[in-house]
Amino acid sequence: MLYLGTFSYLNTQPIDGYIHRYKPDVRVIRGVPSAINRELISGNIAVGPLSVYELANHSDLFAIVTDLSITAVSSVKSVLLFSWYADLADLDQRPIALTQHSSTSIQLLRLLCQQRYRITPHWRPMEPDFETMLQTCSAALLIGDSALVEGTLRRSIEPQGVPYMFDLCDEWLKLTGLPFTFAVWVVHRDWMEQVRLHRIIPALRASRSYGLTQIETIAEQYAPRLGLSSEICSAYLRNLRYELDPDAREGLYTFLHMCRPDFHRDKLCLYTE
């Protein structure tokens, strides 16, 4: 049975939110990035967004759909580090709580700490509970809808108050001058012929083309889930890019090489249809 995976976040809606308009019979599995990554790696899902750090580790399993991605060219607003210190250099040897829902954002934070701030924090994987993370650690990494909500509301956490906030895409841009790609759509190589036969990728492209004309509608429908205004949700979606232009590809390749110095882009298999 052929499954399409996707993240259970607002940011994938412009790509796959209208997939059933073009492929009514497709079976969709939704989950946090770490769960979808596992299902893709195991081959239980044929097509879906893969966190790019997992691409560095498992490129032999996948063919990359080169024109579908989640990319940020400036602040992303949904990959955020909240800190009790205004200078991230002060987090050296201090505990940072890490959401367990994302491998790419964790690796991005590790690289920034190593290469931009030259610090070695103590990493503490935790469930993404904002208050608990910041009551027990000096900083906390959140991603996705939770990060978007907390970054918008800027809640006070007792007894210390409102934490400082850092957008990891801004930090990456300062380090490299390049956009950051968080996920690319991939096809598991064991399923390539079935995916081609069922025309899944053309349906995803059609869904994206339509979805990008429906940003306001997507925002209005999704905003109540987050308790945010539709204006905030639509501004967030319009700030993202859903393709891989040359700058985004260079940012992707730079990150992959930083994660794996032995990485070479020629090793990547590209899916064409």
Task: Provide a descriptive summary of the structure in words.
The protein has 273 residues and is an alpha/beta fold. The chain contains 13 helices and 12 strands. The protein has helices spanning 13-16, 19-22, 33-42, 52-58, 103-115, 130-136, 144-153, 168-176, 192-198, 200-211, 215-226, 230-238, 246-259; strands spanning 3-7, 27-31, 47-51, 62-72, 79-83, 95-99, 122-126, 139-143, 164-167, 180-188, 240-241, 269-271. Strands 3, 4, 10, 11 and 12 form a 5-stranded mixed beta sheet that branches. Strands 7-6-8-5-9 form a 5-stranded mixed beta sheet, with helices on both faces. It is globular and about 55 Å long. The mean pLDDT is 94.
What's the gist of this structure?
Helix content is 43%, strand content 23%. With 273 residues, the protein is of the alpha/beta class. The model has no long low-confidence stretch (mean pLDDT 94).
Strand and helix map with partners:
Elements: E1 3-7, H1 13-16, H2 19-22, E2 27-31, H3 33-42, E3 47-51, H4 52-58, E4 62-72, E5 79-83, E6 95-99, H5 103-115, E7 122-126, H6 130-136, E8 139-143, H7 144-153, E9 164-167, H8 168-176, E10 180-188, H9 192-198, H10 200-211, H11 215-226, H12 230-238, E11 240-241, H13 246-259, E12 269-271
